[in-house]
């Protein structure tokens, strides 16, 4: 199943107002999930704040959300274009009480997953308004309870695991990938998309989320790791793996290092870099610039601060 069909979404966006309204009404009346996914993507890529720069990851997440909400609405007697004012809250309650069966997981859906599904459903209704199909806003008063457990607690940064994994990795490319995430603070998607034209002896140009570009310094260990790679043409990528191939190789390295149970994905490596830099600078603003965050509030969620972080300052009060 292809979650995102850009050409079909763009074709929808190219329709005149009347034709677009008719297609949206037809899709809603027949609960045509595929067409409603395309309608949501057409809105996201042509009329949302980020427009064509909306990330593929966001589009795919919203597609999954629409594919979840529309069948629920049909089974629950919700008329998509004329929903009840409490139907948004009903869907949130359904998500909160539903069991999670994806990827072998059990238990209730996480707060983050619920928020993602509701965000996708809200995007669908913004797409309906954009197409002229309805002005209904069933999620206007729907409250999505936040997760009481901070993300830095649920998925803390790696500590000793990074060096332990590096000690057993004999693949220069895999070592460079881990160091780019854990020492240079790159998202794994950013690292995997790097080309040799992005790399200088001391810095790397990072093409981040939403089309943002930043320049990150390379520490000694990262420079040495990159120097060990076979340099290709400027347009060549440093890494030839897909995301899933990179995860498989890194999980294998963590297991070999005796840290298999500690594997929490590449994002914990990025948090490792943010936490270490904050410990050295005590400056969230500098850490946020380094990680490419638009808000310091986001940076705070990436940094594990010791509980006694201010004990030294308090000593002389």
From TrEMBL:
It holds the Pfam family Phage_int_SAM_1. GO terms for molecular function: DNA binding. Residues 152-315 form the Tyr recombinase domain. Keywords: DNA integration, DNA recombination, DNA-binding. The keyword S-adenosyl-L-methionine does not apply. PROSITE patterns: TYR_RECOMBINASE (PS51898). One of its GO terms (biological process) is DNA integration. It comes from the Bacteria. Signal peptide: none annotated. This is Integrase family protein. It comes from Deinococcus maricopensis (strain DSM 21211 / LMG 22137 / NRRL B-23946 / LB-34).
């Amino acid at each position: 199943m292809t979650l995102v069909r850009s050409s079909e979404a763009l074709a929808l966006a190219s329709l005149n107002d009347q034709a677009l309204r008719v297609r949206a009404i037809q899709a809603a009346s027949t609960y045509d999930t595929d067409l409603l996914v395309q309608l949501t993507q057409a809105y996201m890529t042509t009329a949302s704040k980020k427009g064509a720069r909306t990330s593929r990851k966001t589009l795919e997440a919203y597609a999954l959300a629409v594919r979840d909400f529309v069948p629920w609405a049909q089974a629950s007697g919700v008329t998509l274009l004329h929903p009840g004012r409490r139907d948004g809250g009903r869907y949130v309650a359904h998500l909160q009480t539903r069991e999670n069966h994806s990827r072998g997981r059990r238990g209730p859906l996480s707060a983050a997953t619920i928020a993602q599904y509701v965000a996708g459903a809200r995007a669908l209704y913004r797409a309906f308004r954009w197409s002229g199909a309805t002005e209904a806003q069933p999620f206007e008063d729907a409250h999505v309870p936040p997760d009481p457990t901070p993300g830095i607690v649920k998925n803390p940064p790696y500590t000793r695991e990074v060096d332990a994994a590096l000690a057993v990795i004999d693949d220069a490319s895999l070592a460079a990938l881990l160091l780019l995430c854990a020492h240079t603070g790159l998202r794994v998607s950013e690292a995997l998309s790097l080309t040799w034209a992005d790399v200088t002896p001391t810095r790397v140009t990072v093409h981040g989320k939403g089309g943002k570009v930043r320049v990150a310094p390379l520490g000694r260990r990262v420079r040495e790791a990159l120097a060990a790679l076979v340099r290709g043409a400027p347009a060549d990528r440093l890494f030839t793996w897909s995301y899933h191939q990179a995860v498989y190789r890194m999980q294998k390295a963590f297991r070999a290092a005796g840290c298999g149970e500690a594997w929490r994905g590449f994002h914990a490596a990025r948090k490792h870099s943010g936490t270490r830099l904050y410990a050295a600078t005590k400056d969230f603003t500098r850490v946020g610039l380094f990680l490419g965050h638009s808000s310091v509030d986001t940076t705070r969620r990436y940094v594990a601060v010791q509980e006694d972080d201010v004990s030294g300052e308090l000593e002389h009060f």
